[in-house]
Each structure stands twice: as structure tokens, then as C-alpha cells.
Amino acid sequence: MAQQQTLRLRINGQETPPLTLDSRVTLLDALREHTPLTGAKKGCDQGQCGACTVHVNGERVLSCLTLAAQADGAEITTIEGLAAPDGTLHAVQQAFLAHDAFQCGYCTPGQIMSAVACIREGHAGSDEEIREYMSGNLCRCGAYTHIVAAVRDAAHHLQGAAHESV
């Protein structure tokens, strides 16, 4: 018999009402089925495609392989939480639009969440490095050239903004 667990999730800066879930529920299923946030996609459900990528305490995770219980009390950021409260898109979201870095769009939320982490982790110094650190995110449409260009552009933009604020 499955054990129920009451969790408090902090998602995109907002505390959710307590969620009582089966202890085996993944973070992906908790997000998609128990909150109104459906941006993280269920692609392979085996941790191989990256469509479900979110950030937990600033680290990118595959939410299909992460139990919701592991995120209890953690700060979770989903694609819905990247834009500013006034609707201004994050630099990576803007770059994906500018570089047409998506086709069908299914993988885009996971790609963007990984790109934000890739840049924050300091792994956007070259196209080869971007490809390496984004390799866990698959694009079935093959928009990789545009994705790399978007990550490179966003990294330059974000690094320039960081130098201006110093």
C-alpha cells in the first residue's frame, strides 16, 4: 500500500497549498496534475529527453526522475516562473524567439530551463561547450543550430548585463 505524504512546494516564488500525494509521485506529475503549471513536458518519462527540466534550489533536474517528496520545502522554478512579474521575458526566452530556436515547441520549455542553467553554471563559453552541456535535451525537430545560437546570444547578453551592474 502506497504511503501518502503532505508536501509544501514553493514554485516560482509562491507557496502552494499543502499537497497530499502518494510518496511515489514524481515532481513532474505533481506539477502537471496538482498545480496549474503544465510547462514542463512529459516526453520520455525516463530521463532521456530533457523535456521535463525544471530547477530545484537553482539546480536543473529532470522532474520525471525526481520524486515530489525530494522537493518538499525546496524552491522550484518552472518555465512559467522565468519571465518577470510584468511579463518581460527572460533573456534566454527572448533569444529563443529571436533565433527561431524551436519548431514544434514541445522540447522548448526544457531546452530553455537547461539553457538558463548552462549559462548560470558558466558552460556557455563556446558552441562546443554549449552543445556538451545541452546534450541531455533532445529536439526531435533538429533545431540544434538555432538553439546553440540562442544560448550563445543569451549568454553574451546576460554576461554583458552582469558586467554593467558591477
From TrEMBL:
This is (2Fe-2S)-binding protein. GO terms for molecular function: 2 iron, 2 sulfur cluster binding; metal ion binding; oxidoreductase activity, acting on the aldehyde or oxo group of donors. It comes from Chimaeribacter californicus. Residues 5-82 form the 2Fe-2S ferredoxin-type domain. Keywords: 2Fe-2S, Iron, Iron-sulfur, Metal-binding, Oxidoreductase. InterPro entries: 2Fe-2S-bd (IPR002888), 2Fe-2S-bd_dom_sf (IPR036884), 2Fe-2S_ferredoxin-like_sf (IPR036010), 2Fe-2S_ferredoxin-type (IPR001041), 2Fe2S_fd_BS (IPR006058), Aldehyde_Oxdr_Iron-Sulfur (IPR052914), Beta-grasp_dom_sf (IPR012675). SUPFAM superfamilies: 2Fe-2S ferredoxin-like, CO dehydrogenase ISP C-domain like. Gene3D superfamilies: 3.10.20.30, [2Fe-2S]-binding domain.
